[in-house]
Structures are given as C-alpha cells and as structure tokens.
Amino acid sequence: MENTEQREDRIVNSIGYALVAVGSIDSGVSTWVSLGFPVGDTHMWFGQACARIEFGSGGIVLVERPGDEGLFGWIWSCADPARSAQRVLAAAAWADGEATSTSQEGPGASRRLPASATPGAVTFLEKTYRADSTKAENLTIGIDHLVVASGNVEATAHAYEIAFGLRARGREMKGRRYSFLKVGDVVIEIVGPNQPDSAAPPPRLWGLALRSSDIDATAARLAASGFAAAGPKPAIQGGRILSLHEPVSGVPLAWLAEDAS
Q: Which structural domain, as residue segments, surrounds residue 82?
C-alpha cells in the first residue's frame, strides 16, 4: 500500500475538478442544478466568475467565458502546487522560460500551468482540501475519465508522461488509437487515428465521464428533469454506461457504474 511520503512525492495525485466553460454563470448554474448537481456559491477565480460542484472524490468548476462553452481543462490535485509547478517546468524542456501564474481567489491558492505542458487542455494545480461533499441528487460520486482528441495520440500522451511522470498504456480499438494515463482514480483518455495525422487540428478536450453509485437512479433523476439519455447499457470498459443524447454546456456527458447488470 502507498504511504504518505510516496503520495507526496508525486507531481500530481489525481484530477480534482473538470473545468467547464459557460456563457453565463447564472444560466450555467441553473442548468447543472437541474441535472441534480449541488452547485456552490459564485466566486471569482483568475478574474472570472466561477461556481464549484462538489461530489464525492471529484468535482466540476463552471467558469464564465462569454461566447464560449464546453470542457476546456481540469485542476490537478497535488501535495504542494508551487513545488509541483517547478517540477513540471524542470521536466519539460520545451517549457523553459514559461512561467506559471497564481491566484489566491476562491477556496485556496491555485497555480496555472503553461499551455505547452498539457496539450489539449488548460490545467491548474491545487492542494485540494476535500470537505464533506454535498451528496449529488443524481448519485454522481466522482470523475471517471476525460477524453482528449488528438491527431497524434502517442506524441500527446508522451507530453503528459514527461511533464507529470505518468505512464501511458496504448491500444487499438475499432480502427482508432487510444492511450490511457491514470492519475489517482481518474483516467485521461487520448484518442485519435491509428497513424499520426499532420493535417489534424491541435489536441482538444472532447468529453467527460463521471461515476455513479446507482446508475439506474441516475438515469431516473435525469429523465425526471427532461434529459434524454441512452442506456444504461453494457460499457466497453465493463459495468454499464449512461450517455446523454445532447451535450450539456457543450460537454458530451456520460456516467459509468461498476454494477453487474
């Protein structure tokens, strides 16, 4: 079993929050509350209005970005954000000369990493203090994985390996190339063509999969609020999956459960 010293020696321990852009913080909060999420008070974070959703071992930060919406990044959880930022910059030669920025706004200090360190995503470091989370009405208990689309899966995965000391596991499925990087209980899933495509757009975040403690109850709660979904049905990963027909705030959204039927 991993001890405290080993955990604190990691550059990052997990992904604490997914970052979702909403055109208006008020309408964004209303939408996610209707999904059955507990949304906290609005606060300023790096000069933008935000609201945090807390559930079990993870969460989502809604960030007001007028004219924009969708999944755009995440917050890494680590023991010491300043030290982890230094280690990321030291490990990644292509980040030489780039600085991190810090915000004291919101619940604790956050440190933003250079974009070159995390292809396809905007990411931050925080020492996550997990208080007793409000139970989500939709039975969400954590983040399962985030999906990054890339024209060069191996190169994108390698960038994360270098910067964060993660280990990628690759495989081919249905004519596509996948690379999986596990950090804590969360997986970064990078997907793209089997062969690198130099004409493809830059890497970009595509979707978010959450975990449910009772996927049938999650499906019922979403249906009661008028959100149409496919499933629950058997998932490739095992267990069952429930996927919304339409994106929420521009985010393709799914839930996974490790139940048997």
A: 4-126
